[in-house]
Design brief:
325 residues, alpha/beta, Rossmann fold, 6-stranded parallel sheet, 5-stranded parallel sheet, 34% helix
Length: 325
Amino acid sequence: MTETIDIVLTGPLPNKTADGLDNAFTVYRPFTGAEQKTKLEKVAAKVRGVAAGESHERLNDEFFARYPNLQIVASCGVGYDHIDAHAAAKRGIVVTNTPDVLTDEVADTAMGLLLATVRQLPQADAYLRAGHWLKEPFPFTDTLRGKMMGIVGLGRIGKAIAKRAEAFGLGLAYHSRSQKAGAPYPYYSSLVDMARMVDILMVITPGGAATKHLINAAVLEALGPKGVLINIARGSVVDEKALIEALRTGKIGTAGLDVFEHEPKVPKELIDMPHVVLLPHVGSASVHTRNAMGNLVVDNLKQWFAGKGPITPVAETPWPKPAKG
């Protein structure tokens, strides 16, 4: 790559990824909001790419308008609900994400969170550390034996979770926008109906407007007083207020959450519930997997500017890229 290409980095990325960007491009470091607009105003016309790191900033039409020659947004993560991909498409801007490279890591975390929630493993650890075991054994917990799990979203990660769940002896069903050809599990077009039939709801559907508060009060009530909710998807998929009320009143048994509606802010009501397991959005957060995700961000940018096209364009992206009028 002989020409200089200017890139904006909108959030932190692993060190190896940052080095890869610096070696290939001229990189403007992550200023956000008004600060970014002010500091990059003089070079905005030179910017042709965005590396979207781990930031809560929404990349919308107003953001794209700052950079008249922007061609590509390479996002680090499989979910891209923070990016208005439709607005990008209208401007002829390609959006890429990082699927596949995090599938196994998130599926592993999902099963770990399920085990931790059902068997109350963090609570058992805290019990020992507090010296309570010296007085009496930790109380018996629930089990996965004989349980049925409903998967909300049978995409790449959903299928990987299902494979692991089968090894644990769990019965499986699923709900998604449409029935998946070849899926060996019962399909429910109604999420409420599935919730009524299962013991565990495993949420791994994409975020965004289409799935906002998909897990609502009616679904939680159908899950029942012994039901377990695991959310490893996006915080927006679960109506957090309805969940807190369901947990408070015993309409469901417990929950394991890796994501939250307004993260990193977590409602105090959830923090104060001793039977709920909470994780700080660590589904894919291993060094190995985050480096792989970061490398795919860099590779998408490199391939695009080498004229080879994006590696992992999202569904909404205009590829082949239309000519700008």
